[in-house]
Amino acid sequence: MHFRFIFAFMERLKHILIFLFSLYATCLGAREVIDFNKDWKFCLNPESDSNPADIEFDDSGWRTLDVPHDWAIEGDFDEHNPSGTGGGALPGGIGWYRKTFKVSKKDKGQVFSIEFDGVYMNSSVYINGHLLGTRPYGYISFSYNLTQYINWEGENVIAVKVDNSDQPNSRWYSGCGIYRDVRIVKTTPVHVAQWGTYINTEITDQATIVNVEVTIENDSPDPAEITVWSGIVDDKGK
After folding, report:
1. I need a surface site. Which of 5, 75, 106, 169 has the fewest CB within 10 A?
2. Strand partners, 165
3. Buried b or exposed e, range 140-159, using 16+ CB within 10 angstroms
């Protein structure tokens, strides 16, 4: 569902505008963003006969770390590394990350997504053994919906395979691993889509037009009646 609003002003804007967007619906709560950077388990090039995506996999011997993380910079500089000088002469390989978390039963009916700001590269993301998707590119952010695979009665496991073994693959040093932030986002079934707000302005000497476009997603099986409200205030709160 897509909404477009136009606000016109008869004078040129002399201050930075702050845009506030609110979405109202029955039982609609705020979007909650949860930091997911702490306490990951990590292993570089694990044994080939193991499957770290399995929920029962034993990662007790793995290293504990926080992301963002780059395993390449932890390696040894070597002119014989396949990455070559363009890749910093540092090692690639296949790295696995695992993180265990719980979700409150009170949140059943909410929508949970995981967002990655950047993983280099060829990342495959699993929850409780289910493959959510593979992202070959290493520089763009991406997200997956976790909701249908969440275990509401106990622990959940996110596993991320990062395959940067095909070297060289960059004209500059890229690093290896989950090298940007990760977060869990909790919303109600009816919510503003990820990157669902778009704003641009048309400014002349006579007037300023602010175009606001908002995309709403409904992840429930039923239609919903909503009101989208967009407000504009200046830098002094007026």
Report:
1. 106
2. none
3. eebbbebbeebeeeeebbbb
